Amino acid sequence: MTIDTLIDELLDREGGYVNHPADRGGPTNFGITQAVARTNGWTGDMRRLPRATAATIYRRLYWHQPRYDAVAQHAPRIAAELFDTGVNMGPKVATAFLQRALNALNRGARDYADIAVDGLIGPATLAALTGFVRARGSAGETVLLKALEALQGERYLRLAETRPANEAFLYGWLANRIG
Fold first, then answer.
1. d(CA 54, CA 51)
2. In this structure, which long-range contacts are made by residues 151-154, counting pairs with CB atoms below 8 Å and at least 24 apart in sequence?
3. Res 106: pLDDT
């Protein structure tokens, strides 16, 4: 799966303009908040944010900048999950999920060394991912994906429990982001 396909699917899933009163992001189009759009040069009405502009923002901020393109070279399904989670929760959160899961799955550091949970893809995280894939193979990627989704699902539940307004989004998060 290419980043172009991932972005197209994401844009379709996110849909067009919304301004939900419970959403702290305010006016949003294609899942891009007004603040992110402004930071990336869009000065127009959010209702008219071009799909191509949203795609450019996603590619830069949620694929290349967090280095999920490098992850894709080792584990494409993991990179796709990190991209989607990063869009919804922020790349540092998604990357921290990966780092936590890799640390928990390294069999007491026998397969590869523990890594810092800093939310950044660097040489140590890529080395741990490579070690994991080498030790566990393609079946391991499926298990790692489950671990990432478990962490993501737990965070959604916690968000709804700690901020009742987020209950408006919980069903959609679980329906569209997990599995």
1. 5
2. 151/97, 151/100, 151/101, 152/85, 152/89, 152/97, 152/177, 152/178, 153/178
3. 97
CA nearest 49: which of 68, 28, 35? 28
Phi–psi pair at 124, nearest 5 degrees: -65, -40
Q: Retrieve residue 49's tokens.
A: 């944010």
Instruction: Assign 26 to helix, strand or coil.
Output: coil
Helix 76-89, helix 123-162: angle, nearest 10: 40
21-61 per-position pLDDT tens digit: 777 778 999 999 999 999 999 999 999 999 999 999 999 99
Amino acid letter, 79: A
Q: Which residues of 25-54 are buried (b: 16+ CB within 10 A; e: fewer)?
A: eebbbbbbbbebbeeeebeeebeebeeebb
Global pTM reads 0.91
74-111 pLDDT, tens digit per residue, is 999 999 999 999 998 999 999 999 999 999 999 999 99
Strand partners, 33: 28
3-state helix, strand, coil in the chain (%, to 5): 70, 5, 30
Q: What pLDDT score does 109 carry? A: 96
Helix or strand holding residue 103 (H, E): helix 91-104
Which residues 6+ apart lie within 8 Å of 33 measured at CB? 25, 26, 27
CA distance 166 to 121: 29
